[in-house]
């Protein structure tokens, strides 16, 4: 029975995007785009909005909890590309969890008088372990309160915007404080991970009322609302606080942005909202990734151990997600995590746009819009990779290793394990 209305569907999209990304990458955006930070967020939003068209069309036609995985399978069939993307998607959510955990640690450290590398790593680990335990005991604990959490964190962001509006100094955002056009685009792509999350609406398509009408509205409305929210937050942050001060507190820039208008209370309020947002986002992403692993394993495209569950909870999926996220989050820094996360989802969204183009007749979509979306997402990915290659080769190595691991896994597992299993199953069925 369909139980989610339009507002609920929009809430899923907003909650997925305003999970922890904006708290994590705002300082990174300012360091790259400077006075043009709002433009960088608008550029990232354009890529997200164009891809939302593909998701809206595909979700109406293929209403399945597999979401992105289902769309790519429908377009490309069962081959090495679709199989590799399945694992790439699973790995990308590990990066997202790592980003949220690192943001949690950065904001959490502001409540301690003495900071240290050990404290940072302990907070990262705690931020992942506790939600994992909640998932194992009661996976729906935070999920049931997600709408309330979305309202709380969006309300706090709106409060910061309203309170800080009168403190904005327009000169800080004048063109003379803008970087090159290329740098603005790069900034928009590095922080693109802050827009990742609207695709979660697709995973709930089977539960949304009047899907033909409400699914497109939910995708477009949630992305537009978040674009507006991010642009306004960028204006307040850059306009209210000198850049040098923001760079001193780069990892918790949003809390600093609340200080001019709301003082220390505002700082604590935003830092607390960041902890709540990132914690709930980690909880939801661990559950979602465990469920994704279960769905892919059920189709025979990941090891069957991911199907092991206890009390209707994908136990091994939660365990693997937790362990790998802890290793990843404690191994690379926030900038690299943001780059890898953005590149991963730009690649996946490009493939979704291509999938929509291949299925354009079945889904009733405009070929022109889909070509625009595909080219835009590909250019965005290319721009990010080119910049990263010249400035942060380690992040490129990690991202490329994700692609290589996904491809090799599908090549080996698909041919020698899954292929052997299905051949044996087919022969047994034929003898029967």
Structural class: mainly alpha
Mean pLDDT: 86
DSSP strand count? 0
* Overall form: globular
Compute the number of helices.
Answer: 19
What would CATH call the homologous superfamily?
Answer: Amino acid/polyamine transporter I
Query: Describe the biggest sheet?
Result: none
Q: Identify the CATH architecture.
A: Up-down Bundle
* CATH third-level topology: Amino acid/polyamine transporter I
Task: Write structural notes for this entry.
78% of the residues lie in helices and 0% in strands. It is mainly α and 432 residues long. The protein has a single domain (6-424), classed as Amino acid/polyamine transporter I, CATH 1.20.1740. The longest helix is centred in the middle third of the chain and has 40 residues, at 259-298. The chain is built from 19 helices and no strands. The chain is globular, with a radius of gyration of 21 Å.
Features:
432 residues; mainly alpha; Amino acid/polyamine transporter I; 0% strand; disordered C terminus
Helix-strand layout with pairing:
Elements: H1 6-17, H2 21-33, H3 37-61, H4 68-76, H5 80-108, H6 117-138, H7 140-143, H8 146-164, H9 181-190, H10 200-203, H11 211-240, H12 243-248, H13 253-257, H14 259-298, H15 315-329, H16 334-358, H17 360-363, H18 367-391, H19 393-431
Helix pairs in contact: 1-8, 1-11, 2-3, 2-9, 3-9, 3-11, 3-16, 3-18, 4-5, 4-16, 5-6, 5-14, 5-15, 5-16, 5-19, 6-14, 6-15, 8-11, 8-14, 9-18, 14-15, 16-18, 16-19, 18-19
């Amino acid at each position: 029975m369909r139980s989610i209305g339009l507002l609920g569907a929009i809430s899923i999209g907003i909650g997925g995007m305003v999970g922890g990304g904006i708290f994590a990458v705002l300082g990174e955006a300012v360091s790259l785009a400077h006075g043009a930070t709002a433009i960088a967020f608008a550029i990232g939003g354009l890529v997200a909005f164009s891809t939302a068209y593909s998701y809206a069309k595909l979700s109406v036609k293929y209403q399945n909890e597999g979401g992105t995985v289902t769309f790519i399978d429908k377009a490309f069939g069962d081959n090495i590309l679709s199989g590799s993307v399945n694992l790439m998607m699973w790995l990308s959510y590990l990066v997202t969890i790592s980003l949220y955990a690192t943001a949690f640690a950065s904001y959490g450290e502001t409540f301690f008088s003495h900071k240290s590398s050990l404290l940072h790593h302990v907070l990262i680990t705690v931020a992942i372990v506790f939600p994992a335990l909640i998932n194992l005991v009661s996976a729906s604990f935070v999920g049931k309160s997600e709408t309330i959490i979305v309202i709380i964190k969006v309300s706090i962001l709106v409060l910061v915007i309203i309170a800080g509006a009168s403190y904005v100094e327009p000169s800080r955002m004048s063109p003379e404080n803008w970087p090159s056009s290329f740098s603005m685009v790069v900034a928009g792509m590095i922080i693109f991970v802050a827009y990742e999350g609207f695709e979660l609406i697709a995973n709930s398509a089977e539960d949304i009322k009047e899907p033909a009408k409400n699914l497109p509205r939910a995708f477009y409305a949630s992305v537009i609302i978040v674009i507006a929210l991010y642009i306004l937050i960028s204006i307040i942050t850059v306009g209210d606080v000198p850049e040098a001060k923001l760079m001193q507190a780069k990892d918790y820039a949003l809390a600093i942005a609340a200080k001019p208008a709301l003082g220390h209370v505002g700082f604590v309020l935003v830092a607390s909202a960041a902890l709540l947002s990132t914690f709930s986002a980690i909880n939801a992403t661990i559950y979602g990734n465990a469920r994704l692993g279960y769905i892919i394993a059920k189709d025979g495209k990941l090891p069957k151990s991911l199907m092991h569950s206890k009390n209707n909870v994908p136990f091994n999926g939660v365990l693997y997600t937790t362990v790998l996220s802890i290793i990843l989050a404690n191994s690379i820094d926030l900038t690299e995590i943001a780059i890898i996360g953005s590149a991963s989802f730009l690649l996946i969204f490009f493939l979704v746009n291509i999938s929509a183009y291949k299925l354009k007749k079945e889904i009733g979509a405009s070929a022109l819009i889909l070509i625009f979306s595909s080219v835009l997402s590909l250019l965005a990915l290319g721009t990010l990779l080119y910049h990263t290659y010249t400035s942060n080769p380690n992040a490129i190595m990690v991202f490329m290793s994700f692609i290589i691991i996904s491809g090799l896994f599908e090549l080996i597992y698909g041919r020698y394990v899954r292929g052997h299993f299905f051949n044996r199953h087919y022969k047994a069925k034929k003898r029967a």
